[in-house]
Amino acid sequence: MYLNHKTYYTLNQALKEEFGEKIIKLSIDGGFTCPNRDGTIAKRGCLFCSEKGSGDFTSCADSITEQMEQQISLLSNKWNNAKYIAYFQSFTNTYADVKELKKKYDEALDFPDVVGLAIATRPDCLSEEILDLLESYSKQTFLWIELGLQTIHEKSAVLLRRGYPLSTFDDAIKNLHERNIRTVVHMILNIPYETQQQMRETAIYLSKKTIWGLKIHMLYVSSDSDLGKLYQQNTFPVFSREEYIDSVVDILCRISPNIVIHRLTGDGDKATLLAPHWIRDKRSVLNGIDKKMRSEKLLQGLLEHQLCP
Ligand code: SF4
Question: Topology of 11-220+258-266 in CATH?
Answer without folding.
Answer: TIM Barrel (3.20.20)
